[in-house]
Amino acid sequence: MWLFRITCLLIVLFGTMASSIDYNSSAIPEFPGSTPVSDDIQNTNEENIYSSIVEGMDNKSIFPPVQDSYIDMETPISNTHYYAAFFFLRVRSLEGKNQRSLIQFNPMSGIPQGSQILDAYIRTWLNFPPVESRLFDMHRITEGWTDTSVTWNNQPRYTPLVTTTLDTGIEPIWLEWNVTGDIQRFFNGSVANHGWLIKDHSEDASSPGFNCTIRALEAPRYRPQLIIQWQKDTQSPLINLEDLEGNQTVYTPHVVVTGQVEDNVGVTTIRYYHDWEGGSWTDTQNLSYGYSRYCLEWPVTLFEGRNILRIECQDIQGNTNLVSVALIYHEDTVSPFIKIVQPREGSFYMWSREIISSNFPVSLIVGKITSKVDVEDNESGIDRVDFMFDGNICYSDDDSPYEWVMDNVNVSWGRHVLSVRGYDKGGNVAYDERDIIMLFI
């Protein structure tokens, strides 16, 4: 019993000494776009402040942690939260004895839903720096945890992608972790807020390793902070449609409208409208969260005549944008004309040169030759020409002149059927073929 009492007395004395350490507040560096945190905020009477300071059109909010703890590989089933008298989080790199820290904030109640996050930083005071500068990584935690029960063995999962990496230096200093991207994702709902994990970039260092401590939320001064600069979102989503022009005439009833929607906060709703003479159609797509970028793919069946297609997008804040395009559908039922002009039927060729023209039913070709076609369409226009060898498509050409080089790389010796198919933009097809004998010397 006397040993337990002495141990408790030593813990209290150590905590008292730690709280009485004299820090030079003027040495606390500024973070971008703000003034240093003054002692009237970071004092022994500090409360959980959810403050918004209006600065022009932007707002700055400061949040304390809602929970923090550290986990120790050396004692993998022990929870360290009851060491609160020491006021520290810890990070260590030592083979078999690594330490990591976890921290979580709750900014959601202090900033309006749908706000645009301009900057977000977590500030942690490096109380006892390592003996030489180290790289620390901050990872976003992906599942729930509790500071009073988390241990090394049950530590939560975190993203392998590092949110930010910092060089600690060797002096007590504010470490400023840029978490702007993560905070914006919290607000647009794409990921859940479970906080962050801090670890040494190169764990398992050889003895004596590298140790450091960071002030925890229970500390009397220099507690961690999440500082967010934000503004109300007033920007409408941006909609870009691909390969569509106004009053464009198309000759197939089936089209797919593709494009991208971008928003500085996140798009949550997309509405589709299709109007034609004698009818209309509409549909609404509610997205699972606010997408900063979303790819559109809208299959549409057109009706004869003028079709008006409209897409309206809405972001989290309720800002909307609408784009429309008119497509004129005309049914094309006339097939194109296509004819193989080289090789000509019954002719003898040597290395693409016509040597003899005859009435033989088979064209004889020695060496490589370029197959050429004459193709026309007076309605919707030519879409493409497929060159086939013995029924297999070997080459598709969608640009005039329509040609294909046949050589010993893509065709073989012997008798074959060269055939071509010409498609117009209305989906109609024309066909021609030649019997040929290929020889290579």
Topology, please?
Layout: H1 2-19, E1 51-55, E2 58-63, E3 65-72, E4 88-93, E5 99-105, E6 116-128, E7 135-141, E8 158-167, E9 173-178, H2 180-188, E10 196-200, E11 210-215, E12 225-231, E13 238-241, E14 248-250, E15 254-276, E16 279-301, E17 305-315, E18 320-329, E19 337-342, E20 348-350, E21 353-356, E22 363-366, E23 369-376, E24 382-389, E25 392-397, E26 403-406, E27 414-424, E28 429-439
Distance between the termini: 104 Å
- The low-confidence runs, each spanning 5 or more residues with pLDDT under 50, are 1-57
Number of domains: 3
Shape: elongated
CATH class categorisation of the largest domain? Mainly Beta
H/E element sequence: HEEEEEEEEEHEEEEEEEEEEEEEEEEEEE
Q: What does the average pLDDT come to?
A: 85
Radius of gyration: 36 Å
CATH topology of the largest domain: Jelly Rolls
CATH architecture of the largest domain: Sandwich
Q: Give the DSSP E fraction (strand runs of 2 or more residues).
A: over 45%
The largest sheet, given as strand count, sense and whether it forms a barrel, is: 7 strands, antiparallel
State the share of residues found in helices, binned by percent. Answer: under 10%
What structural category do the secondary elements indicate? mainly beta
If helices are DSSP runs of H or I spanning 4 or more residues, what is the number of helices? 2
The count of strands amounts to 28
Précis, in short:
The protein is mostly beta strands and 441 residues long. It is 6% helix and 51% strand.
Commentary on this structure:
By secondary structure, the chain is mainly β. It is built from two helices and 28 strands. The protein has helices at 2-19, 180-188; strands at 51-55, 58-63, 65-72, 88-93, 99-105, 116-128, 135-141, 158-167, 173-178, 196-200, 210-215, 225-231, 238-241, 248-250, 254-276, 279-301, 305-315, 320-329, 337-342, 348-350, 353-356, 363-366, 369-376, 382-389, 392-397, 403-406, 414-424, 429-439. The longest helix is centred in the first third of the chain and has 18 residues, at 2-19. The chain starts with a helix and ends with a strand.
